[in-house]
Amino acid sequence: MTDSIKTICPYCGVGCGLLIEKGPDDEISVKGDPDHPANYGRLCSKGAALGQTMGPEGRLLYPKINGQRAGWSDAIQHVADGFAKIIKQHGPDSVAFYVSGQLLTEDYYVANKLMKGFIGSANIDTNSRLCMSSTVAGQKRAFGSDTVPCCYEDLEQAKLIVLTGSNAAWCHPVLYQRIVSAKKQNSDLKVVVIDPRRTATCDIADLHLPVASGSDAVLFNGLLNYMHENGYVNELYLQQYTEGFNEALKSAQNTAGDLENIANQCGLDKDALEEFYRWFVDTERVVTVYSQGVNQSSSGTDKVNAIINCHLATGRIGRPGMGPFSFTGQTNAMGGREVGGLANQLAAHMDIENKEHREIVQKHWGSPLIADRQGLKAVELFQSIESGKVKAIWIICTNPVVSLPEADQVKKALEKCELVVVSECIENTDTTPYADVVLPAKTWSEKDGTVTNSERCISRQRGFVSGVGESRPDWWIISSVAKAMNFSDAFDYSSPVQIFKEHAALSGVNNGGSRDFDISGLSLISDGQYDDLQPTQWPITSERPDGQQRMFASGRFYTDTGKAQFIAVSPRKPVQPVTDSFPFVLNTGRSRDQWHTMARTGFAARLSEHAPEPYLEMHPNDAQTIGVGEGSLVSVFSQLGEAVARLRVDHGQCQGSVFMPIHWNDQFTSLGRVGAVVNAEVDPVSGQPEFKHTPVKVVPYRPEWHGFLLSRRKLELREASYWSRAIGDGFYRYEIAGEQSADDWPAWARNLLCASEADTNWVEYLDKGSKQYRGVRLVSNRVESCIFIAPDHQLPPRSWLEGLFAKQSLNDVERKGLLTGRAPVGQKDQGRVICACFQVGINTIMDAIRTQGLTTPEAIGDALKAGTNCGSCVPEIRELLGTTLSQKTS
Ligand SMILES: Nc1nc2c(c(=O)[nH]1)N[C@H]1C(S)=C(S)[C@@H](COP(=O)(O)OP(=O)(O)OC[C@H]3O[C@@H](n4cnc5c(=O)[nH]c(N)nc54)[C@H](O)[C@@H]3O)O[C@H]1N2
Ligand SMILES: Nc1nc2c(c(=O)[nH]1)N[C@H]1C(S)=C(S)[C@@H](COP(=O)(O)OP(=O)(O)OC[C@H]3O[C@@H](n4cnc5c(=O)[nH]c(N)nc54)[C@H](O)[C@@H]3O)O[C@H]1N2
Ligand code: SF4
Ligand SMILES: [Mo]
Asked: What burial class does residue 88 get, using C-beta atoms within 10 Å of its C-beta: 0-12 exposed, 13-18 middle, 19+ buried?
């Protein structure tokens, strides 16, 4: 018998439904839920590998106070007393919570309620500040509410999809796959990608505009102007449903100038720009998808409004196949906004500065006092901790020492802070060493609640395993602290459904259509109905119990006048310009198979192969100028700090710009935390940091030697000046570099790998002349570990050796091949894994292209299965086809 449980993926804002099946031996299989309207059965590589991330490795098992194990009641009391004491001495604004879009709505609701309604401060902010706050601010300015107007089906119904600042192929892969399928069904559908980099998303682009970093507002102002000049503005819509067009147009005219001028400002080819404008004005059904390339900017809010302006000007909003569509980042980024988890919100999309709203919320909560002004936004919050203004911080479900800009300042701030509490499910993160108290949280697969995805769809996340050690759900931990602070009546919850119903009821109080967020239709549901809750898009009211796909069809908005607002946008350049000393723009973002600070994905072998190390992408001409080549190590410096990464030479980068992923941190590498380099300039309206633009210099990192090491045991590599660790199938892979001379290598390697000189299990080879060293340790004829050192990064490939770790015993040929590191004749080395789902390597794909004459990704899929599951690797397969076929013909 197998049980089947429906739940939601814990990662991105697509919010894919999962079907969990437990086999007879409790082994878990994770599949896409064919009935969920976000994914209809599809999953990406991360979702499909969830089963591999559920092990107990690294989990935080019990509460600790000052590093010592403590019982729950002591830990709760300690936190409550600590907060109460500081509040008593210094007032409510001397404490803060820093929470996360990965909390469930119920967790988030109680955290916000405790801070804003009982402690009486609005000092609760969230990692959504780093993620979507410019969208929140832009939507509020335009619509009077933080409303995403579109739904996923619009992607299938559109005739033109513009993706700006979105690498959906890697970051919202299932929505990207929906666009791929829509394009196959509908040959008229055009896709435009606006991104300074040529990303995997460009694989389906009819047009890629490699816009200069930070210039989107110019581009969309130019479009508004173009619409006006060429008679495409929808006058009727403007008159009936909007305000402020003339001012917005004036600003657009001031900045834009003629097409040539706009193209110059955006670093684009004039004809390509005009083509985009023409497609936009000629196509009624346009969806503009935008994400962090727009939001994470010191003028992110204005950019969001510049985009929305163009949709309003043509009345392209609220109808099928059209609208501005923010793809949200985290699984519950939207739910966090709904409960008011940002420092400038209240609850249920109500406003902190609005007296009537405060009264509604205070009455509903039965709270003694309610915050009446905005709290500190993430970046200023941590600055206020450093300055001593904020003296206690509770960090829940986020890893700020990695993910905030100017991340070393965050370390300093936490060091100084009187009381740091961290609720985590992982024992060692870059943030936990700064905690006075750590509290073990249950996580995905263990906890219950609800989440809201990018299209306003609320789904149930359901637990199906009991959780490790003494971990508890976040709502329970927060409520327990609230009770210990003497707020028992208001936090006397025994299950998430109670919290959900209170939240749903609040959204309906005095609403009657005056506020967008209304889920009062769910306020009276039974426990059973909550358990069975089907994915539904809000608003959900008694009149509309099945929710609503799109918003604003009626042309009525939530502003005071009921009309949508045009916002006059005067484009600004990124705050810090490049200089002679820091000549490159550092752009940061995501890699295909890793999630954020790798707290979950870093434990899955299948997800670690695609990019086993921190890397920096750079245009070949730039690489040549600074004298570095593919595979060498480089240091990236800003005025703030340094990171070290492996160089990937990439024609897709524009010259003068480099890209580094955000994932690596001190748990996985020696110096790869890019947050330490990134500046903390923020958008003045939203407070969102400018993560996509930091001036840096890049210099070669030249160690004495380079190497790699594979080992069944996890190792401490203190003596390597550079190291990075990735998990493999039965082994750990370390890329290393160091300063010791060749004379010292054997002793160092043996010591590290527990081999003695006389050990018959140990085979080694040293050539001092060419500075090559290799050592392999076999135990019972299985590889236990191996190390390869050379004067530069030209080392044997890792993949064949890695494959040997899966073998119970080695044959003679394999043993002989060991020290060469290469597959002996007759054995294949599949090379770096390209398709994570079916584990198909680069060499296998290239071989198939050459020997079988394959010319399309589909043909490769038929032959090798590569790319036929989640599809995330298809862009790379197409690139391989391109290079292999061009080599053949040249
Ligand atoms: N694999 C994976 N997927 C994820 C995540 C993850 O960690 N890993 N995280 C999730 C989260 S929380 C988020 S917020 C989303 C983010 O999803 P995305 O926003 O799609 O991802 P990013 O890589 O941050 O940035 C998107 C693109 O913006 C481009 N960009 C930089 N500067 C500019 C500019 O000035 N203009 C324009 N137009 N583009 C620019 C970058 O080159 C980059 O390709 O991803 C979600 N999905
Ligand atoms: N340079 C640069 N920096 C960025 C970005 C960028 O593009 N460039 N993007 C920003 C964006 S958009 C985002 S969203 C952030 C993300 O940054 P973070 O939020 O810091 O990243 P995560 O790794 O998701 O952190 C979540 C933590 O919560 C823990 N956790 C998981 N589940 C639970 C749970 O149920 N309860 C509790 N209590 N803990 C749990 C995990 O172990 C992990 O340590 O990074 C931001 N930082
Ligand atoms: S696209 Fe991938 S990461 Fe995002 S929700 Fe779906 S399966 Fe999860
Ligand atoms: Mo995010």
From this structure: exposed
SS3 461: strand
Residue 345 · residue 132 · CB < 8 Å = no
- Provide the sign of the torsion angle of the four alpha carbons 749, 750, 752, 753, taken in this order: positive
pLDDT confidence of 1, banded at 50, 70, 90?
very low
Q: Are strands 732-738 and 705-711 parallel, antiparallel or unpaired?
A: antiparallel
Give strand ranges (E) for 701-771.
705-711, 722-727, 732-738, 762-767
Ligand 2 neighbour 675 (Cβ under 6 A): yes
The whole-number average pLDDT for the span 350-364 is: 97
The answer to whether the Cα torsion of 266, 272, 275, 279 is positive or negative is negative
For ligand 1, pick from 327, 681, 692 the residue to mutate: most ligand atoms within 8 Å of CB: 692
CA 591 to CA 611: how far, in whole Å?
Answer: 8
Distance 291 CA to ligand 1 centre (A): 6
When pLDDT is cut at 50, 70 and 90, the band that residue 817 belongs to is confident
- On the 0-12 / 13-18 / 19+ scale of CB atoms within 10 A, 780 is exposed
Q: Is the pLDDT of residue 110 over 60?
A: yes
Q: How confident is the model at residue 374 (pLDDT cuts 50, 70, 90)?
A: very high
CB 345 within 8 A of CB 352: yes
Nearest Cα neighbor of 80 from 490, 484, 493, 489 is 484
158-203 confidence digits (pLDDT tens): 999 999 999 999 999 999 999 999 999 999 999 999 999 999 999 9
Q: Which residues surround the ion ligand 4 when the cut-off is CB under 5 Å?
A: 131, 329
CA of 404 to the centre of ligand 2 (A): 10
